[in-house]
Amino acid sequence: MAKFSLFFTFIVIISSVFGDEYHNHKTKSLRKTSKAFNEAEKTTEYWVSQGQDKLKELVNRKYNNNNAKNVIFFLGDGMSITTISAARTLLGGEEKNLYFDNFPYTGYSKTYCVDAQVADSACTATAYLTGVKNNYETIGITAKAKVQDCDAHVNKELWTESIVRWAQKTCKATGIVTTTRITHASPAGAYAHTVERDWENDFEVSNNKCDADKVDDIAEQLIYNIEGKNLNGKDLIEEWKSARGSKASYIWNNIQLKAIDYENTDYILGLFEHDHMKYNKDVVANNLGNSEPTLSEMTEAAIKMLQKEENGYFLFIEGGMIDQAHHYNYAQLALDETDQFQKAIEVAHKMTNNDETLIVVTADHSHVFTYNGYPPRGSPIFEAVEISDVDDLPYTTLSYANGPGYEFMFDTNGNRKNPATFDFKNYKLQYPATVPLSKETHGGEDVAVYATGPMAHLFNGHYEQNTIPLIMAYILKVGPYAVDEKCTSCATMPILILTLVMILIVKLLK
Ligand SMILES: [Zn+2]
Fold first, then answer.
1. Ligand 1 mean position to 464 CA, how many Å?
2. Does the annotation flag 364 for ligand binding?
3. 3 state DSSP class of 317
4. Where is the signal peptide, in residue numbers (predicted)?
């Protein structure tokens, strides 16, 4: 004990002699002075009154104890807290808020899956849509099912049921909107049961030595799960149209989306790309707005459709390209896609009534993305601002722990490259990564949950990710909390899906 105290005293003396070596923000920087954002920030009054305004809002906040008629669930794929903080600077400064930053209630969700420390989008989709944690790479099936186990895939006793199905059973309208392939892991969590997320088409099923006649791929499940048919090899889009009747509309571009006759349309299948949709910046740069809608435009169309259902609705909206951009170390695109995502949330919030519509915003998992150094306030976030006191080279404020950006971190001799030579105007610049990997990985820490509307306060605190759909179900009175499930034949319920499936196109060509 005595030794311990001596050691502690020694440390204190050392640090008082040499200063705080851990937070040395007096090292060299390419930008020494902070941009003055607001002169008032230099005063006590500014900060105290700003804090007091927030406190007043908190003290006067009233719980909204209504049940929700509608739920809109926004999922920013890979939208880590670092991503959120960095994206705020795109709005004009560190002090700005993304639209959902203003939601009254927040919580944290733990994202690990049953057999993995760091989750993928398949096991997390199962957690946040069906209320059950399961194994990495599997969707809508319990952890008793091992990955790529053909027999487990078809064992319905292992299937978990999603909140989309729960809502349909209580006669609510449902919709799925995503910027990825509609058969990709996150949206698949709404309707599919599979032991392998890559079984988006029957080629992949056969490739893994399962019988594609018995094992339905994800695209088939999208179209047929509702009616329980097995129609391998058929034209899925035509099958969807004929099953839905004259009020079903299949669209594939933004002009058609804008021309929807909502009064005479009950079902929409919108597939706007042959793979994931394009990054927003690519759509803008190549003037492709007539072919690809923005996430906000898809959100608006989905809400207009679903609002027709007097029993209410459940709508799942995914900003899927945040994750894709991070995997390539495209930091600028990840933040731009986050901006697109928050704009869609603003559209949804302004189109709906806070007294009857619960809006929940979260991410499935984090990424190994950092926002680092001690750059002065208002520094350009995408540039190299600070200078290392070890190799005397500048370093970027944004970087990754791993990924293809390794190439931009070190030269062939293992020396760090000088980021001052990078083309920061190129939005597809790959940000430096420490460990070389062909694709950057997810991160294992918690993600944030934001909520507004009926009983949004229930999302406060810290919980396992699979709690989220159970809270939504409680507030919406569906699933385990349903009073009456009158619509067990789900085929009659409107389902609206906006995005694209390469797999469906593949089937058409067969
Ligand atoms: Zn991912």
1. 19
2. yes
3. strand
4. 1-19
